[in-house]
């Protein structure tokens, strides 16, 4: 075994060995689907799992147990012991030669406790625990799976796997790993039988593209600002979203989007913050894709382990994405996912054939994969569930959402200067102190018509307050140029005069969320925040859980009531 010491950790690796199926298997050629051999999947992906010590397993060696499980599982998943080859028109096939997969055992001089939170993505010590693939490693004529099992001082271990993406997706890999785990515990146990059936995702005859696929559209106008950068310049960071952060993001949404999934919400947040950090030309078109499984949309048999996902893309001009609320980004993402249907899947498969398996759109694009429900955290080799199981980290242009402790960890790769801007934007949008106009607009969707008359009933009272406040406002404002500040002072002083009189009218208006019109364009977010701060001094008690949101609601109702009253005065009588 050879020692490798770095980052305060020493790991001793054995020579790589080949693990073959426990029994003889068929020698044949199997075709991959038209999704499998897509250009963008011709790559390797790595996943890692950390297991703590299990007292009941102290007499067993995880290396030997898992190696045996792999050998037994390859009897059922024998194509994974073969090699990928390229046929006419670059069509990929798997030659089931039974050559086996690669396996390395290792020993680290640290315990799981020593590693702490560094096990989450991006795994700080990943180069110690992953099978070291040569930089020139190709997907053709090469093993399809690479394993490394590293024993830890505490009795726990680290399991890492690197897969050739053309043969399976993350769900397919987890299905195989669960079989390995079952075989490791009991070689005679019943398993979910694997299904090859790659013809399910083969093009129709004749192939026909019937849907719009933005994710494969050619980009005619290239950006002057890209995310391409040398690996040395890239910063690899991760961000944790717990219940508090996720709820704060939801507070930015209008009522009609409140029931969105957490994955959709985080995808919108990442897309918006990333685009703002890149500081692109406002007219540049940017896109985001979420990987969506076809299970439930296409009749995929249980046990299928090939690539079975599509990634519909949402598009927007960078300027619109940055200027609008989080709800704008989320709406586009949900609209894109809403296009997902069986016909959409069939159309995409046909496009692969007609266009020669084109590379997905990369210019201005961002891809987000949901690993929270794939099942890496459920794989049990006999030592229980892993403390963490999922992707090792992000890859260029892509991020993954992974379960970590009581929340979701999101690794992301960006140039160092862009990463600083991204962190700043993300901090703003996840801060409880940050107000967004979409919060105020949200209440319009739940308005009740029965409260419309109340605003007009309040108008005479408010007008009286306006008249009494006029003199004081003029004293505070030196020039008509200060229109915005005038409005702040005007509203604040008006509130002081009016509060005792119209609180009983304002409360039902605020609680039902009726909004007459959107805020004046001249009323900036900063101005509104200033007004909210002043208004909070006079705000009435509220039983609403989020007091800050309640204040926003009350402020919006008041501002619009004043606006309506002012307009009604300025209109000539008929």
From TrEMBL:
Record-annotated membrane-spanning stretches: none
GO molecular function annotation: transferase activity
Gene3D superfamilies registered for this protein in UniProt: Chloramphenicol acetyltransferase-like domain
Keyword Transferase: yes
Keywords: Transferase
Family, per entry: Belongs to the plant acyltransferase family.
Protein name in the entry: Uncharacterized protein
Origin organism lineage: Eukaryota, Viridiplantae, Streptophyta, Embryophyta, Tracheophyta
């Amino acid at each position: 075994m050879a020692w490798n010491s770095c980052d305060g950790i020493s790991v001793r690796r054995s020579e790589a060995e080949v693990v073959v199926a426990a029994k003889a298997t068929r020698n044949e050629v199997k075709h991959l689907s038209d999704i499998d051999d897509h250009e963008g999947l011709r790559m390797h992906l790595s996943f890692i799992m950390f297991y703590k010590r299990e007292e009941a397993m102290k007499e067993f060696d995880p290396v030997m147990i898992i190696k045996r499980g792999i050998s037994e599982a390859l009897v059922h998943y024998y194509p994974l012991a073969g090699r990928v080859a390229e046929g006419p028109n670059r069509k990929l096939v798997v030659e089931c030669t039974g050559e086996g997969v690669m396996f390395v055992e290792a020993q680290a001089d640290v315990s799981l406790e020593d590693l702490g939170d560094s096990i989450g993505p991006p795994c700080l010590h990943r180069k110690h625990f992953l099978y070291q693939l040569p930089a020139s490693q190709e997907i053709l004529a090469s093993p399809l799976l690479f394993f490394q099992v590293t024993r830890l001082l505490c009795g726990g271990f680290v399991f890492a796997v690197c897969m050739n993406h053309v043969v399976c997706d993350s769900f397919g890999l987890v299905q195989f790993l669960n079989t390995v785990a079952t075989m490791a515990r009991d070689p005679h146990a019943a398993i979910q039988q694997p299904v090859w059936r790659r013809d399910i995702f083969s093009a129709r005859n004749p192939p026909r593209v019937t849907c719009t696929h933005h994710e494969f559209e050619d980009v005619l106008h290239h950006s002057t600002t890209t995310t391409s950068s040398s690996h040395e310049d890239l910063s690899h960071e991760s961000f944790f979203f717990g219940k508090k952060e996720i709820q704060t993001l939801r507070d930015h949404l209008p009522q009609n989007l409140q029931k969105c999934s957490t994955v959709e919400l985080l995808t919108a947040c990442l897309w918006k913050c990333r685009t703002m950090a890149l500081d692109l030309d406002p007219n540049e078109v940017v896109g985001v894709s979420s990987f969506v499984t076809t299970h439930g949309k296409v009749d995929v048999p249980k046990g299928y382990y090939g690539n079975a996902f599509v990634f519909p893309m949402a598009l927007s001009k960078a300027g619109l994405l940055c200027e609008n609320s989080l709800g704008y980004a989320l709406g586009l993402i949900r609209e894109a996912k809403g296009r997902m249907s069986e016909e959409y899947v069939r159309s995409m498969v046909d496009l692969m054939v007609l266009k020669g398996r084109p590379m997905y759109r990369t210019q201005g694009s961002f891809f987000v994969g949901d690993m929270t429900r794939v099942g890496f955290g459920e794989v049990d080799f006999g030592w229980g569930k892993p403390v963490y199981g999922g992707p090792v980290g992000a890859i260029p242009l892509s991020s993954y959402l992974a379960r970590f402790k009581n929340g979701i960890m999101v690794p992301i790769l960006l140039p160092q200067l862009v990463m600083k801007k991204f962190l700043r934007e993300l901090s703003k949008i996840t801060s409880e102190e940050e107000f967004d106009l979409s919060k105020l607009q949200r209440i319009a969707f739940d308005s009740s018509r029965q409260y419309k008359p109340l605003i007009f009933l309040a108008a005479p009272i408010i007008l009286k307050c306006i008249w009494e406040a006029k003199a004081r406002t003029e004293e505070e404002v030196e020039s008509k140029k200060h229109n915005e500040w005038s409005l702040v002072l005007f509203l604040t002083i008006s509130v002081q005069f009016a509060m005792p009189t119209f609180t009983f009218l304002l409360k039902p208006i605020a609680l039902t969320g009726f909004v007459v019109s959107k805020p004046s364009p001249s009323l900036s977010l900063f101005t509104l925040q200033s007004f909210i701060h002043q208004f909070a001094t006079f705000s009435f008690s509220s039983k609403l859980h989020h007091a800050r949101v309640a204040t926003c609601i009350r402020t919006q109702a008041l501002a619009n009531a004043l606006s309506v009253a002012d307009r009604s005065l300025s209109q000539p009588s008929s």
